[in-house]
């Protein structure tokens, strides 16, 4: 039996975030303290992760001066911590174009999250996040509109809570962890498994 095809109309989404993991990115300020920002635009190939970040944010400013960072993936139970960071910036004074933002010096404290020392970079990880990447920026490219940077970072080390790993391995098991997913400006967690790639080592 042929599957019925959907009907399509012209849509006008307020954003093009069709669904992807939210993350918390930590960078180092000039005075050695840490900045923490929520983000959701990224993709990965091999050990390289590409991040889409606002030009006006403190994160890009830090990465252009100090390339190290951590990328921390929250689970659904941390959504309130992520939301507490919304509308805040680590830049002072607040830059033009970010009038709805307010300056916050200590984003970890504001979010109610604990900094955790990294092993290869001077930037802390987010202790509550069950999956964490230590990374170093290798290239930052301005986007064609001037509003964004595409930051290519080499992941140097991955840390995971053992509870989300396949027992006896270092492989994250997607059945053991549900990341916080950002979809059209709403947050969800992953649900029922619907399939896997044949090459999956956790199938």
From TrEMBL:
Similarity remark: Belongs to the flavoredoxin family.
Gene, per the UniProt record: ydfE
Name by which UniProt lists this protein: Flavin reductase like domain-containing protein
Domain of life: Bacteria
Keywords: Flavoprotein
Pfam family membership, one: Flavin_Reduct
Membrane-traversing stretches: none
Ranges where the Flavin reductase like domain occurs: 22-190
Organism: Microbacterium nanhaiense
Essential cofactor(s): FMN
């Amino acid at each position: 039996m042929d599957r019925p095809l959907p009907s399509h109309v012209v849509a006008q989404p307020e954003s093009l975030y069709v669904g992807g993991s939210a993350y918390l990115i930590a960078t180092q300020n000039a005075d050695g303290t840490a900045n923490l920002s929520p983000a959701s635009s990224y993709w990965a190939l091999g050990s390289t992760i590409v991040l889409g970040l606002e030009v006006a944010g403190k994160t890009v400013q830090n990465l252009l001066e100090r390339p190290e960072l951590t990328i921390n993936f929250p689970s659904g139970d941390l959504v309130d911590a992520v939301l507490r960071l919304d509308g805040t910036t680590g830049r002072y004074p607040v830059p033009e174009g970010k009038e709805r933002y307010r300056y916050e010096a200590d984003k970890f404290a504001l979010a109610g999250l604990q900094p955790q020392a990294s092993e290869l970079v001077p930037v802390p990880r987010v202790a509550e996040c069950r999956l964490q990447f230590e990374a170093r920026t290798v290239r930052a490219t301005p986007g064609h509109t001037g509003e964004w940077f595409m930051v290519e970072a080499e992941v140097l080390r991955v840390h995971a809570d053992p509870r989300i790993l396949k027992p006896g391995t270092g492989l994250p098991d997607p059945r053991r962890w549900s990341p916080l997913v950002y979809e059209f400006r709403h947050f969800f967690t992953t649900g029922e498994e619907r399939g896997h790639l044949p090459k999956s080592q956790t199938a």
